[in-house]
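Appendix C reproduces, verbatim, an entry submitted by the partner laboratory led by Prof. M.T., so that reviewers can inspect both the input and the predicted structure.
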Amino acid sequence: MVKDRAFSHSRTLTAANKFLPRKPSSSSIALYSIFLFAFSIFVFNYYSKDILEDEQKHPLPEEAQSLQLPREMLWGALDDYGLRPCVEPTAKYKATQARDRYLTVRSNGGLNQMRTGISDMVAVARIMNATLVIPQLDKRSFWQDSSTFSDVFNEHHFITSLQRDVRIVKELPKELESAPRARKHFSSWSGMSYYEEMTHLWKDYQVVHVAKSDSRLANNELPLDIQRLRCRALYNALRFFPPIENLGKKLVERLRSRAGRYIALHLRYEKDMLSFTGCTSGLTDAESEELTIMRETTSHWKMKKINSTEQRLGGFCPLTPKEVGIFLQALGYAPSTIIYIAAGEIYGGNTHLSELTSLFPNVVFKEMIATQEELKAFSNHASQNAALDYIISVESDVFIPSYSGNMARAVEGHRRFLGHRKTITPDRKGVVEIFDKLETAQLERSSLSNLVMKLHKNRQGAPRKRGGPLPGIKGRARFRTEESFYQNPYPECICRSSSKTL
């Protein structure tokens, strides 16, 4: 039985072999391959014919073809190259020693000018081996805010979180309240050697009073531990008063519940800003005259005669609401985008704001997402309201400042510190030039988006080292042209945690 099956299987194989083709030659394989290749070319051309004809009938706009990827990345996270915050002191850093020397400080300016100034004073107290008395906030600025330190900041957290770095007390000891004190205007952008020299003041005084706190420390060439202390002070220790923090977080949640994501726009179009900069583009003659009178009667503003046209063409003016609207449109943001306005009262009210809302109707202020009861505690307190704007701006998906003031720089730096969150900084000089060409028909509307996006390809907050002084400027004036430490705390307070390279 087994033999029969084997014989049957053998006959089957023999019969099948008659129908199997002979082993093909190399020439026949080549001819077959050429045939297949030619046939595939024919099929491709045949089926792509309709597609190509359709594209020729309905071509995509040039800017849409070249800018599709950037449009998709408008909300996308930037590559952080493996960078992370690093503020811990080095192994050489020693805990502070309690000292019977006291530094009192009167902070000057608006909220963010005071915040960075206070952080500087923490570092100065460390360098001078002094005890820092909780700083006094500016009550004489434009807003006439009566807020104290504990009204704006979490005082207890500020003291305890820095206890290893600097001894901080709420007030001077009673026995020193009437003691003579040295009153100093420390030089701007000073380094270690300057403050080490200032320790000679302790020979004659137990208390040194600092009249101004802003820009008292150099941006660069300071020891790593001093730079990291500045970051610990600003980003970790200077937390806002808990009710401010809590409401700020609630408002962020409410904004996200509307559309999932939002832009925070720092629209510097307040009366004092326009008057100070002398920028009157788009204003009526009466409005321009009002701003001129304000500037001429404000004694501490040094510049009185300003050419508004030259200011604008030089990129020294805040973008107007109309210019911001065109700018956002050119970048590719949809009209439905939620835009939170982080700013004071817009000059001219709805008359000028409508030039933005006509393009982007979903413009909101804190008064539109918070109840009257929630905001009641902060009414007539500019610093506390500014703190809410700051929180919402830092947490936004995209932050765009229309002018590079103190808040714009502080928010940009904080967003860099937290992971290089997208911050689009308009090239005001370049943007104005493009808009003016558009206005005078020297530029076609179809080219606007392409030009604006090219101009801002590398202005979105991606990681880069802090900029130094402008070339050709000598002496102390060069310090003024350096990029602020608090605008970009890389590399001292931001470290690489992987093998990625910039």
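The chain is about 45% helix and 5% strand. Additional entries are available on request from the coordinating office.
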